[in-house]
Amino acid sequence: MIADPKLVSQLRERTGAGIVECKNALDEAGGDIEKAIEVLRKKGEIKAAKKLNERTTKEGLVHAYIHANGKVGAMVEVSCETDFVARNEEFQAFVHDLAMQVAATNPLYVKPEDIPAEIVAKEKEMYLEEVQGKPPAVIEKILEGKLQKYYSEVCFLKQSFVKDEDITIEELINQKIAKIGEKIEVKRFVRFQI
Question: What is residue 1's DSSP assignment?
Fold first, then answer.
């Protein structure tokens, strides 16, 4: 099937992907633009995973966001591979959005692996008390669900993006990695509030 140029153009507008990638995604999705977006998203996640494992980040930005009322602010350190990307307007806007996310949501950790083991153990213990008397398989599923919810509250990468609740910060970063073509990492952040 040869992809309709209008559909290719629409898909490019919505995703920022290249022409060839859009054509291939539309072919794979049988001309359905929504399915093509899903195809691109999955391919982007695969590319992002490869980049995360293969490359190092030596450049990046430290960016500060101060809310309009002057009472809340945040700083983030976001790394990338080259200074070319770090100076790119799109990357700078992306880092600004990440700093705004920190100011808005007040995460405690960057990722679940950063949470001290004793805190995770206390959370599990608390959840176990809530599910006493249920079958072990059910308890395990409930525990996992409650832990994932806890991570989405306290871990920056697991939070829903404030500008688009349908994606997490981790998914947003993976989309940027796929689009920009470089590994991107959130190293650390700090939030201030009066």
Answer: -
Query: In this structure, are strands 72-80 and 160-161 parallel, antiparallel, or unpaired?
Result: unpaired
* CATH number, span 5-53: 1.10.8.10
CATH 3.30.479.20 fits 56-110+155-193, yes or no: yes
Residues 31, 87: Cα–Cα separation, whole Å: 37
Read off the pLDDT band of 1 (50, 70, 90). Answer: low
| Total count of residues recorded for the chain | 194
How far apart CA 172 and CA 94 sit, in angstroms, is 9
**H-helix segments, the chain:** 5-15, 19-28, 33-54, 83-86, 89-105, 117-130, 136-154, 169-180
pTM for the model: 0.69
Residues 6+ apart with CB under 8 A from 182: 51, 55, 80, 81, 82, 85
68's tokens: 């309009």
Residue 52 token pair? 């995360």
Please, which contacts does 36-43 make with residues 24 or more away whose CB atoms are closer than 8 Å? 36/7, 36/11, 37/11, 40/11, 40/15, 41/175, 43/178
